[in-house]
Amino acid sequence: MAAIEVVDLAKTYGDLKAVDGVSLEVAEGEFVGILGPNGAGKTTTLEMIEGLRRPDGGSVTVLGEPVWPRNAGLLPRMGVQLQASSFFERLTAREQIHTFASMYGVPASAADDWLERVGLAGAGASTDKAETRVEDLSGGQAQRLSIACALVHDPEVVFLDEPTASLDPQARRNLWDLLSGLNDSGRTVVLTTHYMDEAEVLCDRVAIMDAGRVLQVDTPAALVRGLDAPARITVAPGQLDADAARAIAGVDDVTASVDGVVLTTRRPGPVLAHLAENDVLDGVRVQTGTLEDVFLELTGREYRA
Amino acid sequence: MRRQSPFVAISLAIVRGFVRDKASVFFALIFPLMFLVLFGGILGDQGQSKVDLIQVGDVSVIDDLPDDARAAFDDSFEVTESDDLDAAIAEVRKGDADVAVEMQGDTLVAHYTQTDQVKAGITQGTLRAFVDGANVALLEQEAGTGAPVSFRADRVEDDSLSTIQFITPGLLGWAVAMSAAFGAAATLQGWRQSKLLRRLQLAPVSTRTVVGARVTVAIGIALVQMAVFVLLGTLAFGLTLTGSWWMAIPLLVIGTLCFMSLGLLAGAITTTTEGAVNAANFMVLPMAFLSGSFFPLDDAPGWLRAVSDVLPLKHLNEGMLNVLVRGEGPASALVPMAILAGFAIVVTLVAARLFKWETA
């Protein structure tokens, strides 16, 4: 059984079709990312799946039950993290998660366990932030607490809306370690993001969204493979001149830049072998297609996060 | 560890949020108390001044005082003479004079009010002493030259109240109105902006539980305000509560609901927390002046009093005065309570119509 079934979902604000016929199926235990630039309709889609907004068209079922109107029986089985840090003001991290635990009828010990798991308390934590007020937490710590509050009742399905937005790259990567284990125990996770690398690292499957539509859904690798994008091999400056590069079998195009000579090829294997024979592999960089290229291919325009 | 009910957990979270917000605590308690101390301390300190006495017609006891006794009398009393007894008593009733004296046959009658108990005591005691002194002097003279004078004190039914008696209910009404309105406005805006409202919508707790917790905390704050005001007023400034003072409790509960609804309205029509608090301030502060929280409206022009009648705070203040200090029965709070409840319902409905989930 699919954990989440979204069929032809639509939402219009005035003249703007914020969500325009989105369909998506998420299997139990799957980690699915909704990837798209700001304003693509990711959050509106997610909030309709959570049951926060009434769809103008289409239907959503989570764990086999409709989410709209507010389905009280379903709420304890769902965990949500909204885009903003939705906290009670001036509580400490521990008081915060205890309050959420009480709302879900979960003992305080479970809340304390989660505080440790997200690295805000206990021996494993670099700094103990349990008694720090939420206003004084860093962006990354606040997101960790927010995620812990979403998970405190051990939900079967978790929705995370841009959990790493506005974090610095270091904090973002730290959070990935926490997020990547979320579906280990069979939990279903849906996350929105506008970071390509994040979707690539975390998600089993990625739905690429733009202008209210899902353009394609697949595993990150399959999306890139389907793109049939050429590889770009950059040889460090001064090791290979452009004419020699053009002579290598399999090279489609050569451009020279301050970074070195860039060889474009659809057969990177033989080209790399040739470079190895000529001993110019020092400092070589190989880039294959990325999700960004997929996005460009699908929409015909640059990705703007 | 015992599990808390969602209601208790949310209430506790709100209470913690309140007591840790120094600005909220300041405006709910310290700020109004500053006014109480100011008014109670400055205006209430009139015990040492002379007693204003109006002498109506000839009063032999005073007129015939020997010079040294007359000097002593003038130390205690500021004497004005008058021929009109009714006008004199009216002045006493309004609080412009403390006592009016006249002779009724051989009896010296003092018309006084109980407004200021200290002055009333001084007035009665001193006048009695002078009458006794005059009678003793009379006995020492040959018999038959004058009839002894007796003394009677007549209490005038007053509608003026001493400063502390008047100012405590009014300031308390203002303090409760202010913190209820600010609290509701700031909570609605803050929770909407942090999406906590949305988050709670996705938690398995009913709207009733969340609203109930917020209202319960607001009522608790109002009752703490009442306790602090009444204690400080009684202990430091001689406030005397009258019989049905306990009716102030249900009155304050309804008043809190009424001003929370105004706060919800302020929160619904604004888009930022600062805007919401400013809007609440804009509603409550002028209302406090127009509703007699700071000074009585008895002498205000008729149109102003007509305006004040449509303001909920006026009715809260009226009810508070009735039961806290005017000594009226419990029923005197019922009409104000009904009016406040009506306000609460109408304003809540309007606020609910204007409410939007999103601030953008």
Beta-strand portion of chain B reads 5-15%
Please, how many helices of chain B? 14
Can you write the helix and strand succession of chain B as a string? Answer: HHEHHEHEEHEHHHHHHHH
Radius of gyration of chain A, whole Å: 23 Å
- The assigned structural class of chain A equals alpha/beta
User: Ranges of chain A with pLDDT <50 over ≥5 residues?
Assistant: none
Percentage of helical residues of chain A?
A: 25-40%
General shape of chain A: globular
**CATH level-3 fold name of the largest domain in chain A:** Rossmann fold
Output the keywords:
heterodimer, A: 305 residues, alpha/beta, Alpha-Beta Plaits, four-stranded antiparallel β-sheet, 14 strands, globular, B: 360 residues, abc type-2 transporter like fold, 2 domains, five-stranded mixed β-sheet, 5 strands, ABC_transporter-like_ATP-bd (chain A), nucleotide-binding (chain A), antibiotic resistance (chain A), ABC_transporter-like_CS (chain A), transport (chain A)
Give a verbal description of the structure.
The complex is a heterodimer of chains A (305) and B (360). By secondary structure, chain A is an alpha/beta fold. Chain A folds into two domains: 2-225, 3-Layer(aba) Sandwich (Rossmann fold), CATH 3.40.50.300; 230-288, Alpha-Beta Plaits, CATH 3.30.70. Chain A is 31% helix and 28% strand. Chain A contains ten helices and 14 strands. In chain A, the strands form three sheets. In chain A, strands 6-7-8-3-9-10 form a six-stranded mixed β-sheet, sandwiched between helices. Chain A has a four-stranded antiparallel β-sheet with strand order 2-1-4-5, covered by helices on one side. Chain A has a four-stranded antiparallel β-sheet with strand order 12-13-11-14. In chain A, strand 7, helix 5 (169-180) and strand 8 form a beta-alpha-beta unit. Chain B has two domains: 6-43 and 162-354, no CATH class; 51-155, abc type-2 transporter like domain (abc type-2 transporter like fold, 3-Layer(aba) Sandwich). The radius of gyration of chain B is 27 Å and the shape is elongated. With 360 residues, chain B is an alpha/beta fold. Chain B is built from 14 helices and five strands. The interface between A and B is medium-sized, with 34 and 28 residues. Chain A: Belongs to the ABC transporter superfamily. Chain A: It is found in: Cell membrane. Chain A: It is a peripheral membrane protein.
